[in-house]
Amino acid sequence: MRSPAPSAASFAGAASAAMAGALRKTTGLVGLAVAENPHERLRILYTKILGVLENIPRDAAYRKYTEQIVNERFDLVKKESDVQKLQDKLNCGQIEEVIVQAENELSLARKMIQWKPWEPLVEEPPSNQWRWPI
């Protein structure tokens, strides 16, 4: 019995399967799937983080240092199109882990706006608060 003529869909499926063979199929980390478009995801996250940081005073340590790190990483994302090379240059684990780090930083930046750690204390801390051992 003859097999039916291949359809356009089967050619597309074969082409995408061949392309997927060139990409990683797993991160090797339980619960962390391979990112389909890591550059775009990081561009979005870094843009959001920088936007949130605009709401924090310029002289706040958190803003200064977070902006510096995010801008450095964002520049690498813009310059390096190869995922493996980007991962190596960032030197922060797999690209999927970098995405999780950026998601966590965005969450923290939003919380920092609520917490306002740059404002003076409401009351003086106890005199022995930082003394150890007591």
For this entry, what is the oligomeric state of its chains? Answer: single chain
Principal-axis shape equals elongated
What's the β-strand tally?
Answer: 0
Question: Spans with pLDDT under 50 lasting ≥5 residues?
Answer: 7-22
Average of per-residue pLDDT values: 87
Strand residues, percent = under 5%
Termini Cα gap = 87 Å
The description of the largest β-sheet is:
none
**Number of H- or I-type helical stretches:** 5
Residue share in helix: 55-70%
Please compute the radius of gyration using only Cα atoms: 23 Å
Structural class: mainly alpha
Question: How would you spell out the order of helices and strands?
Answer: HHHHH
Describe this entry's structure for a reader.
The protein contains 5 helices and no strands. It is mainly α. Helix 2 packs antiparallel against helix 3 (61-79) and helix 2 runs parallel beside helix 5. The chain is elongated.
Please summarize what this structure is:
The chain has 134 residues and is mostly helical. It is built from 5 helices and no strands.
Helix-strand blueprint:
Elements: H1 8-22, H2 38-53, H3 61-79, H4 83-90, H5 95-115
Helix pairs in contact: 2-3, 2-5
Please describe the structure with a list of short key phrases separated by commas or semicolons.
mainly alpha; 5 helices; 134 residues
